[in-house]
């Protein structure tokens, strides 16, 4: 199985981690929620998948294009 990287679309701060390694997610289910300019923006699963690794922690600053998680499509 090949892993895929999930990247951020915006610059912000990791407000809440919604998924953990081993979790099965459906397409559009949130992986993490970012806070940017007082707005909460979810980063969601692009496809039905299993989370392999979360690469950020709550409170981490991220910039556009940062890899936040690795997944495997199911």
Can you tag this structure with a few keywords?
globular, mainly beta, 4-stranded antiparallel β-sheet, 8 strands, OB fold (Dihydrolipoamide Acetyltransferase, E2P)
CATH T-level topology: OB fold (Dihydrolipoamide Acetyltransferase, E2P)
CATH H level, superfamily name: RNA polymerase II/Efflux pump adaptor protein, barrel-sandwich hybrid domain
- Main pleated sheet: 4 strands, antiparallel
Helix content: under 10%
Corresponding CATH architecture: Beta Barrel
- What's the number of structural domains? 1
Which class do the helix and strand fractions yield?
mainly beta
Low-confidence stretches: none
The overall pLDDT average reads 97
Give the strand line-up of the largest sheet. Answer: 1-8-6-3
Q: Give the count of helical stretches.
A: 0
CATH class: Mainly Beta
Shape: globular
Distance between the amino and carboxyl termini: 9 Å
Tally of DSSP β-strands:
8
Radius of gyration: 11 Å
- What is the element string, with H for helices and E for strands? EEEEEEEE
Write up what this structure looks like.
The chain is an all-beta fold and 74 residues long. It has one domain (4-73): OB fold (Dihydrolipoamide Acetyltransferase, E2P). It is 0% helix and 54% strand. The chain is built from no helices and eight strands. A hairpin with a 2-residue loop joins strand 4 (30-36) and strand 5.
């Amino acid at each position: 199985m090949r892993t895929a990287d999930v990247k951020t679309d915006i610059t912000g701060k990791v407000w809440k981690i919604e998924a953990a390694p081993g979790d099965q997610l459906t397409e559009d289910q949130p992986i993490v929620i970012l806070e940017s300019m007082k707005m909460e923006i979810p980063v969601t699963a692009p496809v039905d998948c299993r989370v392999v690794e979360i690469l950020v922690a709550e409170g981490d600053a991220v910039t556009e294009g940062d890899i936040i998680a690795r997944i495997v499509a199911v």
